[in-house]
Design brief:
With 244 residues, the protein is an alpha/beta fold. It has helices at 39-45, 63-66, 69-78, 94-105, 172-176, 200-206, 222-225, and strands spanning 2-7, 21-26, 29-33, 55-57, 86-90, 118-122, 129-131, 134-140, 150-156, 159-163, 182-186, 215-218, 234-235, 241-243.
């Protein structure tokens, strides 16, 4: 399995980084984990073949995590000329929010004759399901988004990858990342606390609670980016590629 960090920034593009987007290539296909508003640019820059993507798996329904989806859909219809099905999976409420986003950005777009099958799967909390070859389990975290927000536990090729999504501290992160091969964790600030987000000082204080084999920080603000040299964990950057 290969993971490419297409976007590792916060909602505001701090440090010139793209919004959250992770590209998973595995034996059975390709998935995106989140698809933030700037993700189409990130994919173009990384020369990602969008037509290869089988599924887009969403942690929660904020624009910096799913805002590129309407553009991805229209690109698939009119540019990439996609023919194979696309699955979008996310927490309960995903179907309605995707419909609303399509209509806000491109009125009437939900009624066009799609050239490909578009399937929305809503993932119930702590109920593992298969999404195009990825075993997906959502753990509810503390981040208001108008619907449930999840940390995602992903099983691929015998490996476990956990992604925190956005959240302030909750013990659900301990459960979601238990014995994971890789824990990708948001870290908005260094010491400065922002509601409903984690910071480096807090993660250091809680690090003994985590049993993941490897931990990488992402979703970083300027405050965190200015202190990367002092980070106690690995940190991600746009374009980082890992083989697990």
């Amino acid at each position: 399995m290969q993971i490419t960090f297409l976007g590792t920034g916060d909602a505001f593009g701090s440090g010139g980084r793209f919004n959250t987007c992770l590209h998973f290539r595995h034996a059975d296909g390709v998935a995106l984990i989140d698809c933030g508003a700037s993700s189409m640019v990130a994919m173009q820059r990384a020369e990602i073949d969008r037509a290869e993507i089988d599924a887009i798996i969403l942690s929660h329904l904020h624009g910096d995590h799913f805002g590129a989806l309407p553009f991805f859909m229209l690109d698939a219809q009119f540019v990439a000329r996609r023919s194979k099905p696309l699955v979008v999976a996310g927490p309960p409420g995903t179907r309605e929010r995707v419909h609303q986003a399509m209509e806000v950005f491109f009125p009437g777009s939900t009624n066009i004759g799609w050239h490909f099958e578009f399937i929305v799967e809503e993932v119930a909390p702590r109920s593992p399901c298969d999404i195009c070859g990825v075993n997906v389990e959502g753990y509810e975290v503390d981040h208001p988004s108008g619907a449930l927000s999840y940390a995602l536990r992903l099983g691929v090729e015998g490996k476990i990858v956990t992604y925190s999504g956005d959240t302030q501290w909750t013990d659900a992160l301990v459960d979601a990342s238990r014995d994971a091969d890789l824990f990708i964790c948001e870290c908005h600030g260094f010491e400065h606390s922002v509601p409903y987000h984690l910071n480096h000082a807090e993660l250091c204080a809680k690090r003994d609670k985590f049993s993941a084999k490897r931990m990488i920080l992402t979703h970083m603000s300027d405050d965190m980016l200015d202190n990367l040299d002092s980070a106690a964990f690995e940190t991600a950057h746009d374009g980082l590629r890992l083989d697990l």
